[in-house]
Specification:
globular, mainly beta, five-stranded antiparallel beta sheet
């Protein structure tokens, strides 16, 4: 989610809403892409310059496990409308995005792709059972497959065949949406959902809802990750729950606006969040992290732009107007960076502090 005020499931379990299905039990560990050593963090790569990343406001991007489909959102800044879009990689180039068929009417934000690429979780202020709750809730939308009807795929586990479109979104049942507003839900291999919610303090804190006997009965506040003056709008869980990527305002050690941090699992608790450093974070807002399905990349959003450059002379009206018409105009763009060196560097910082 852009405004301050405002992955994976596996196992042989079934949930009535179709959230937990028979998905792979093993997941790729982060590995540096070819040509990148584990100890270097290269400059983040802009995604689809001029097609995906434009002079408009883009955020919240992630790719399917095969790397061929990108789902992200665009906003009418600051918070008037969020729409979710889809693009496909064709001959190495991202196609012109199209709005997902169930988006475009309400504020739909923070899409997170499931590990099989066949469904997404997202937050929306759309009505629930015909009633406007005046808050954000977590929804799930699933691809419709050629050999499955909507009723069966929603109830009976993984869909098969070729994708032919999208089913209508369904509200995630249970503790995830029980109170307050919640945004950015991500899912671990065992079905546990991690999400940000305003339900306890009014700030956006990190919660976990465990999948127990096919239901999300309780949501636990992860106290060590929260605190006074901290708003965490994104919590992207690793498939094995070994670490969390966090997009936070007000956290100690920040470089500017929102920064991206990582917290490593320590037994039943979580370690102190570690800033991912100046190669990722800067003066502007850096946020909305995702873990690619192959485990090699972190996708994220940054609002870095022309104000990061040194200026010896005052701006003129024409120079500002020209900058604002460019891609790096201080609105959001999508980036990716190899994940392994980012995590190695953060782990080293954790050891140095200890």
């Amino acid at each position: 989610m852009r405004g301050r005020g405002c992955v994976a499931i596996a196992g042989a379990m079934l949930v009535s809403c179709g959230l937990a299905t028979e998905w792979p039990r093993t997941f790729a560990q982060p590995q540096a892409p070819a040509g990148v050593t584990a100890d270097e963090i290269p400059a983040p790569e802009m995604i689809g310059e001029g097609i995906i990343s434009t002079d408009e406001d883009e955020l919240g991007g992630g790719v399917t496990p095969d790397g061929q489909t990108l789902i992200f959102e665009k906003s009418a800044a600051p918070h008037y409308l969020y729409i979710m879009c889809e693009s496909h990689l064709v001959n190495g180039v991202w196609s012109k995005p199209e709005i997902l068929p169930f988006s475009g009417q309400y504020r739909d934000t923070d899409p997170v792709i499931a590990p099989d690429g066949q469904s997404i979780l997202f937050a929306s202020d759309r009505p629930v059972n015909g009633k406007d709750l005046h808050r954000w809730s977590i929804w799930r939308a699933r691809r419709r497959m050629a050999d499955s009807d909507e009723k069966n795929t929603a109830r009976d586990g993984p869909a098969t065949g070729a994708a032919t479109g999208w089913e209508q979104p369904k509200l995630v049942p249970g503790a995830v949406n029980s109170e307050g507003s919640q945004v950015f839900a991500s899912i671990a291999a065992n079905g546990n959902i991690y999400f940000a919610s305003s339900r306890k303090t009014g700030n956006y804190d990190v919660f976990r809802a465990k999948l127990v006997d096919g239901e999300y009965k309780e949501a636990d506040q992860l106290g060590s990750l929260n605190g006074p003056g901290i708003d965490t709008f994104e919590a992207a869980i690793a498939p094995d729950e070994s670490y969390l990527l966090l997009g936070s305002f007000g956290r100690e050690g920040g470089y500017g606006s929102s920064d991206i941090f990582v917290s490593y699992r320590e037994g039943e608790g979580w370690g102190k969040p570690i800033n991912l450093g100046p190669q990722i974070n800067g003066r502007a807002r850096d946020y909305s992290p995702r873990i690619s399905g192959d485990g090699k990349w972190m996708y994220f959003t940054s609002e870095k732009g022309f104000l990061d450059d040194k200026h010896e002379q005052p701006f003129t009206y024409q120079s500002v107007r020209s900058k604002l018409q460019g891609i790096t105009n201080e609105l959001g763009n999508l980036y990716r960076v190899p994940l392994e060196p980012v995590l190695r560097d953060a782990r080293k910082k954790q050891v140095d502090v200890q």
